[in-house]
């Protein structure tokens, strides 16, 4: 502002956010007469510094009557902008689960504590939308408008199995079943639920969704589900196939006849005398004389956390308290990528290469038909020989597409198995046969707290630091 400040005028400072101005009077030096300022003069000093809004007139009057020397005094305060609230969804169901068992005070694992899925009934409210609330402007002490950050509404929920209210704020289930939230998408799907055991009385179960059994499975029954399978009771002589995750909350007593195939991850209290193939990770209390193959990682929990007898393989590694026992029970453990899996990968790659080569020959044959037809002025498109080549080409291209997907999956598994190891947190007993990738060793002495890994010299053991 125009005009000069009077001598010994107090210093005006404005905060970095522009919301506060202070005034500091210089401490008298005892040599010069201490000047006095009227409230109007102090107001002019503030205006000279650009401070025009939120001025505390009462404070200026007090400072005029009784100046405060050597200390900054607030003389103006702006109005902060109020930030708005973006639109958000309030979900009325559990969206995240802890898939690991609770460890009891005595160290045992409580597998019944695991929550596996959330279910709803038709008509239940599953989500409520809270629209965005825009903020309000503020004003700095220098009279500058302070704009709040703009906030946005969210797009409507997508998915299946629910309705949206007329006011577009409330979502309700159309059907009873399992509800899940995945990447902002809600899906409610039917669930096949059995309130008891599955066996001769119920027959086999085949269902294109999730299956929940509030009992056990026995009598040679077969359960085949495209989704998750949750079984509260004991698993005995049966066959189970799950397209996704499998939860065996009371364990498996297989009697050497139970076969389990899991397309996702598997959680079981224990496994005895069973054959298991799992595409994901496995969590359990203990394994006893079972054959288990896992494309992910195996972690055993609780006081037992042991593998005794049988054959257990996990591409990404294994962690357990004990492997083997003091009786020297032969226990075979494998991690990483073995020669058999590598050979299968190479064989599939060669198969795809051979089919692709054949497809190129077929394409050349079709082009030859079309070329001869163009030269002779004849349309060979309906010629049976050309039609047969076209059918074979379509078939082989579909095979290549599917087999290439399978090859990519195999490649991902092989990469994930790099640097796999076996961690034994308590005791590794003599009698264990250990394989890491294509390296093997038989344990002849008992070892405490060791990690087993592959080195250029072969399988090595090193102490785990506690």
Query: Which oligomeric state applies?
Result: single chain
Fraction of residues in H or I helices: 10-25%
Q: In terms of per-residue confidence, which ranges show pLDDT below 50 for 5 or more consecutive residues?
A: none
Report Rg.
Answer: 37 Å
State the end-to-end CA separation: 71 Å
Number of helices: 4
Please tell me what the overall shape is. extended
Proportion in β-strands:
35-45%
Largest sheet: 21 strands, mixed
Number of strands: 36
Helix and strand content put the structural class at: alpha/beta
Arithmetic mean pLDDT: 91
Describe the structure.
One of its GO terms (biological process) is cell morphogenesis. Residues 11-182 form the Flagellar Assembly Protein A N-terminal region domain. InterPro entries: FapA, FapA_b_solenoid, FapA_N, MinC_C_sf. Pfam families: FapA, FapA_N. This is DUF342 domain-containing protein. This protein is an alpha/beta fold. Among the domains are: 11-77, no CATH class; 88-133 and 148-189, no CATH class; 339-416. Helix content is 19%, strand content 36%. The chain contains 4 helices and 36 strands. The chain has helices spanning 39-48, 57-65, 339-376, 384-416, and strands spanning 11-14, 20-24, 73-77, 88-91, 102-103, 109-110, 118-120, 125-130, 138-139, 145-146, 158-160, 162-164, 170-173, 177-182, 185-189, 191-194, 205-207, 210-213, 221-225, 229-231, 238-242, 246-248, 252-262, 266-278, 282-288, 291-294, 298-300, 306-308, 311-314, 318-323, 331-335, 422-428, 432-436, 439-442, 447-455, 458-463. The chain has a 21-stranded mixed sheet that branches. A 4-stranded antiparallel sheet has the order 4-8-13-12, with no helix packed on it. Strands 7-14-15-11 form a 4-stranded mixed sheet, with no helix packed on it. Strand 33 (432-436) and strand 34 form a beta hairpin. Helix 1 packs across helix 2 and helix 3 packs antiparallel against helix 4. It is extended.
């Amino acid at each position: 502002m125009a005009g000069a400040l009077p001598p010994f005028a107090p210093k005006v400072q404005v905060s970095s956010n522009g919301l506060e101005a202070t005034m500091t009077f210089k401490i008298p030096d005892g040599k010069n007469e201490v000047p006095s300022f009227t409230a109007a003069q102090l107001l002019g000093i503030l205006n000279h510094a650009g401070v025009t809004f939120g001025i505390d007139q009462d404070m200026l009057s007090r400072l005029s009557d009784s100046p405060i020397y050597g200390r900054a005094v607030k003389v103006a305060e702006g109005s902060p902008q109020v930030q708005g609230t973006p639109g958000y969804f309030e979900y009325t169901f559990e969206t995240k689960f802890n898939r690991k068992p609770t460890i009891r005070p005595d160290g045992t694992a409580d597998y019944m504590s695991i929550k596996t899925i959330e279910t709803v009934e038709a008509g239940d409210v599953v989500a409520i939308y809270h629209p965005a609330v825009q903020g309000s402007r503020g004003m700095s002490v220098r009279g500058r408008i302070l704009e709040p950050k703009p906030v946005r509404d969210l797009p409507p929920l997508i998915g299946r199995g629910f309705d949206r209210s007329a006011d577009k704020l409330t979502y309700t289930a159309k059907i009873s079943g399992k509800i899940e939230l995945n990447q902002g998408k809600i899906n409610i799907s039917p669930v096949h639920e059995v309130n008891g055991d599955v066996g001769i009385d119920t027959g086999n179960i085949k269902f294109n969704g999730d299956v929940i059994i509030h009992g056990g499975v026995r009598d040679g029954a077969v359960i085949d589900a495209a989704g998750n399978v949750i079984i509260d009771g004991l698993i005995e002589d049966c066959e189970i196939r799950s397209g996704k995750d499998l939860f065996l909350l009371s364990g498996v007593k297989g009697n050497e006849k139970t076969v389990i195939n899991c397309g996702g991850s598997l959680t079981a209290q224990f496994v005895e005398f069973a054959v298991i193939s799992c595409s994901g990770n496995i969590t359990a209390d203990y394994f006893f004389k079972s054959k288990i193959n896992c494309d992910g990682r195996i972690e055993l929990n609780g006081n037992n956390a042991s593998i005794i007898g049988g054959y257990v393989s996990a591409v990404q590694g294994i962690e357990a308290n004990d492997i083997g026992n003091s009786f020297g029970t032969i226990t075979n453990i494998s991690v990483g990528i073995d020669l058999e899996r590598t050979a299968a990968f190479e064989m599939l790659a060669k198969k795809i290469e051979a089919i692709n080569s054949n497809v190129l020959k077929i394409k050349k044959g079709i082009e030859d038909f079309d070329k001869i037809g163009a030269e002779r002025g004849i349309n060979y498109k309906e010629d049976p020989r050309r039609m047969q080549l076209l059918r074979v080409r379509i078939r082989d291209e579909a095979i290549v597409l599917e087999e290439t997907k399978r090859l990519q999956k195999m490649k991902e598994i092989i990469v994930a198995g790099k640097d796999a190891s076996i961690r034994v947190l308590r005791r590794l007993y003599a009698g264990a046969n250990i394989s890491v990738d294509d390296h093997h060793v038989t344990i002849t002495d008992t070892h405490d707290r060791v990690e087993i890994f592959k080195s250029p010299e072969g399988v090595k053991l090193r102490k785990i630091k506690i």
